[in-house]
Design goal:
Helix 10 (391-402) links the parallel strand 16 and strand 17. The protein is built from 13 helices and 19 strands. It is α/β, with parallel strands linked by helices. Helix 2 packs across helix 8 (309-326), helix 3 (56-71) runs parallel beside helix 8 (309-326) and helix 10 (391-402) crosses helix 13. The protein starts with 11 loop residues before the first helix and ends in a 17-residue tail after the last helix. Strands 1, 2, 3, 4, 5, 6, 7, 8, 9, 10, 11, 14, 15 and 18 form a 14-stranded mixed beta sheet that branches. Strands 17-16-19 form a 3-stranded mixed beta sheet, covered by helices on one side. It has helices at residues 12-19, 31-43, 56-71, 136-139, 160-169, 220-224, 228-240, 309-326, 348-355, 391-402, 423-428, 445-456, 471-490; strands spanning 75-76, 84-101, 104-106, 112-113, 123-130, 146-151, 174-179, 196-200, 211-215, 247-273, 284-290, 295-300, 303-306, 335-340, 364-370, 381-384, 406-408, 433-434, 436-438.
Length: 507
Amino acid sequence: MRFPSLLCAASLTAASLATAALASPPETADADTKAWWSITEELSSDAMEGRDTGSAGYDRAADVVARAFAAAGLKPAGNDGGWFQPVAMDEIAITRAALRVGGRPLTFLHDYRFTPTAAMPLQFTAPLAYRGYCDASVLGTVAGKIVICHATRRAGLPGDADREAAVKAAGGIGILSIADPGFTVEPPRWPAAYARQVKLAGAPADTDRFVRIVVNADALGTLTGKSGAEAADLIARGSRGEPLPAFDIADPLDARFETKARWISSSNVLGLLPGTDPARAGEAIVLSAHLDGYGYGEPIDGDNLYNGTLDDAAYVALLIRLAQQRQGKGYARPVLFAAFAGEEKGLLGGEYFVAHPTLPKAALAGNINLDQLRPIFPLDLLTVHALDDNSLGADARDVAAGLGVAVQRDPEPERNMLKRSEHWAFIKAGIPATGFVFGYRPGTKSEEIYRHWYKTGYHTPQDDPDQPIDWQAAGDFNRFFYALVDRVANKDSAPGWNAGSPLAPKP
């Protein structure tokens, strides 16, 4: 997976040759797991170039998915009787960045990152102020300044929205948010792959010129001019939620950016397995995973291709595997297989589909979404999103119990995982939905593996087909998914909301 720039026009034949040497399931693995992984390897091979939204690599992967859906007996469910639902998007990307304080430069994507907007100033010089947690009571005079704030996620301290509101109210023109290395449940990852904003075409124009930049904690000394020991002490205290000083910085922040705007398009890939019961024809179950990845980005350990194997090629592959198993044999309810575009750019494919469904919106009865799944340690505990909010949670609990797997609510709600994948678009639209994360028990080897993956694998080039996989766990989850779909698509009642759920649509 190292600097495969010459693969920009690679053929699928080349992809097959490239994957021949990759790690594979052992001979003892079952045939279904081997077949699933073979599809995963193809979708996340170097020839697909990380399936970045708007790229030729994404289009190649979408063609693979559409052909697989067709061969498995699904019916095209995209636009105009085809497999694809094009999603038009507008992109703004940073092409050059220079940030310095006095004579001290910061390195783009390594020391800082941000999401560009059409309204952001591309050149500015402004005084800097350090204000700890940026509580309104400590800001003082920051009019016309950019304020350095610790983005600490601790109860009793300001959150992101509170910090920004306080700085704006005090006249500040921007925030440099220090990514908290003490947030161990999902530690900051550096470098960032790139700096882009992608929005659905036609979305409201940006008008807010407020500057928002995320800073690597290791760069605090460069910003403040303090010694390494002094900066490290501020970071340590900020991570623990201890009292912090407030001070102004002698040197101003000078920023120079260049951007490039373009229109891009990638397609959702949609296939329908018609139902067998006419009475339930208007109760389609949507099975979804996102096809896009990050593509090429800032190198990590000499690798600049973010293959996106577990996030989320493996689970588009699982949709294909289920379709292959069915070979056109329907469940009682219709099942829509959806490989979404643009998830990594802001859940765009799912948002677009829910707003422009290719089936009547009233006929979308539920969504089972596959993302954030890491079969890298044994599966004996499964986090189920919206577990207590709709009937899909009870279905997941019962199916998991039959396989000897316990379920739990999200033990880390501060990560906001419920709103970070495509099931959220369905929930917002009032459609019962769920998704899953491999769970662990605190202090176990499984937790150690999980934490390590989020430090070194998540949204990095190391999420590639060569990474270690727990093949038993992978197969166990796949069997759970098959059984859950069978239950939900065949049971007497359609998915519904539980009484009192805060996620349920308001009457």
